[in-house]
Automatic annotation (TrEMBL):
This is SDR family NAD(P)-dependent oxidoreductase. It comes from the Bacteria.
Amino acid sequence: MRIPPPRLTAFADAALDRSLVLGYTRIGPALRRRWWPADPEPGCLDGQRVVVTGATSGIGEAMVTLFVSLGATVHVLGRNAAKVETVLADVRRALPSADLVAEVCDVSDLDAVRAWCDDLSSRVDSLQGLVHNAGVLTRAREESAQGHELGLAVHVLGPHLMTERLLPLLGADSARPGSVVWMSSGGMYSAGLRSTPDEIEYREPGKAYDGVRGYARTKRMQVEVVDAWNDRLRGGAVRVESCHPGWAATPGVTDSLPGFGRLMGPLLRDAASGADTAVWLVATRPTSAGTHHFWHDRAPRPTTYPVQRRRDPVARRAFLDHVAAATGTVWP
Ligand SMILES: NC(=O)c1ccc[n+]([C@@H]2O[C@H](COP(=O)([O-])OP(=O)(O)OC[C@H]3O[C@@H](n4cnc5c(N)ncnc54)[C@H](OP(=O)(O)O)[C@@H]3O)[C@@H](O)[C@H]2O)c1
């Protein structure tokens, strides 16, 4: 097949992205795979170790199979031990040689995250991939074990703390340093950054909790945290990226957004397509990483559009301070 010239494909790719429906649904990868970068080489993750959180459903579960197919040892992390065992059994049925390790941790519980990171660090010498994929969208405001808004805890605080605690493992093998990928959402484009502790925790007096809004806010926060991680690790070997999966048919969509799931129905991509870019980022460590950290369908994407509010450095500082205080960490 003839591949169109790069400027034409860049234009077509951006047009698909801005249209949302064409880019985010199964139409996006169906067109883009004609020009997007090559698939990871078979066996390219042989002997490498990857952790996938939220691996008991949807995109995370599909990601386990994709990583195994590339040769990785995959640590399948979920909050429910029985579900983790089911995923292990299902993947082994399809791929009998799969090297899988069951991991149980509620990523919203910061004490559990600390304990699990210490435990993993006592069991393995290095880590080449860490995908923060676990996600929630609740109708009512819920709180984590430490009293944080649940979406904030699952999407931001737990993953930030996990990245901090696993950084030594991620940098341990200088020949194969690690990549951390945060699974955000295109929904983050609709949300700005909040600056007061009450706003960050979605505890605003007189304002009812809106689950979709809360979800978009914490997905925006993920991208801001990854920005800060990039500032922190610039020039280092460990990479920290964010991406979004488009719109994929998963229990997360059908259970949390049934109306959207019905509306988009056959246009939704499958879970493996939603998982593709995160796997590709870990497997190939693309060279433009470091300048662009937000990816979709194997290409860097803007984190804001020009029509959106300018970024507010005061809000960003206040938000990062809140993350540090909540997790007992320090931004160097
Ligand atoms: N599907 C889409 O179209 C779409 C679009 C944009 C972004 N995303 C993002 O992609 C990621 C995966 O979404 P999905 O659609 O595959 O959702 P999903 O089917 O609901 O899967 C979410 C996974 O996260 C796990 N999880 C939730 N809270 C957890 C916690 N506290 N500790 C550990 N694991 C936890 C769930 O565990 P249980 O099995 O125990 O519930 C499940 O394995 C999420 O971050 C989501 O925000 C998805």
